Amino acid sequence: MRYSKQREEILNAVRGVTTHPTAVDVLNLVKPKIPNISLGTVYRNLGVLTNENQLLSLDINGILHYDGNVNDHQHFYCTQCNELYDLFFGISNYISSHKNEIEHKVNGAFLLLTGICNKCSNKE
After folding, report:
1. Inter-axis angle of helices 5-15 and 23-30, to 10 degrees?
2. What is the value of pTM for the model shown?
């Protein structure tokens, strides 16, 4: 992958937040540093960075969200406020304890829990 200043700014923007931004959010994050950047450029570079495993992409109800943390972790999606939260617990124990039920070689796992976050629960 060739170096690109725009790609570097996009990567830094996504890695610099924990909010799992959409492409439009990323555009708004990088606009102050690169005023003439287009949404198409942001989409293209997010795709490259995802394909190069430098970012994760999460499809939530047809909208892609990006995660700068590519280390093993899971996610919680609040169906009320639409926020995504990182969860850090090992899923490998679950996979190991169910290896007799899984007939395939598992290289990784993606778990998305859904429900209502504490913030929204406390508002009720």
Report:
1. 110
2. 0.87
